[in-house]
Amino acid sequence: MSPGFLSDKRAVAAIIIAIPLAIVAIVFVRPIDFNLSMIVFGASLVLFLFACLLDTADELQPASTMTSTPKVKKKTVAKAPAKPSDEHAEVFVPDVVKPTVEPSKLPIETIEGIGPVYGKLLRDAGFPTVADMVAVDAEKIADICDVNVEQAERWIAMSRFAWLDEISEEDAEAIVFATEITDLEALANANADDVFAKVKRALADGDVRVPAGYVINLEKVRTWIDAARKLA
């Protein structure tokens, strides 16, 4: 037997029953009925073997299940944010990184909110570039893309800003969605502090979203207004 013998309560109970049963079989039953004594002795032997098996099973059980030591929680690795699955999600437009690109050379997807699906619809309808959106009727764009007129008006408004060197796609979205300014003249006459306050509020409320690390501050807002004043 191993040092761990009788460590299982069930094994102890089996031994307590087996030993007296074996004594009764040999001392008391055998003189009366030899066959019956063999049956009783066999039962005690089975109990004894059962006790041995229980104890052996405990010894073979993995240490991790025999102790109450708490498991160490594995350190979880943060997953990268999932990519948008929406069919209208926007894609990166390489042309946008070039400063002062002519509107006729900027793809329609440059406008914030127009992804590959809306972009294809507009291209097929004869509006492949930002320049094509500047003076188009909002109701026509809404009909082509099956969106409301307000959304179409915002796209058109953003097309009037997106081609400027000082105003990026994200900037154009912030101007239109946060301040409802829709043309260069209105931007040129705007107050920088007021515009910045509205943009800051819209960003905090989630009405306007920009890429991680992208900063819109008061100085940037002033460059928007200065650029608009030069052209308005």
Feature tags:
single chain, 232 residues, mainly alpha, 3 domains, 53% helix, disordered N terminus
Question: What does this entry look like structurally?
Answer:
The chain starts with 8 loop residues before the first helix and ends with a helix. The chain has helices spanning 9-29, 34-60, 63-66, 116-124, 138-145, 149-159, 169-179, 184-188, 192-205, 218-231. The chain folds into three domains: 9-63; 89-163, DNA polymerase, domain 1; 166-232, no CATH class. It is 53% helix and 0% strand. Mean pLDDT is 75; it is low at 1-7 and 58-99. The chain is built from ten helices and no strands. It has 232 residues and is an all-alpha fold. The longest helix has 27 residues, at 34-60.
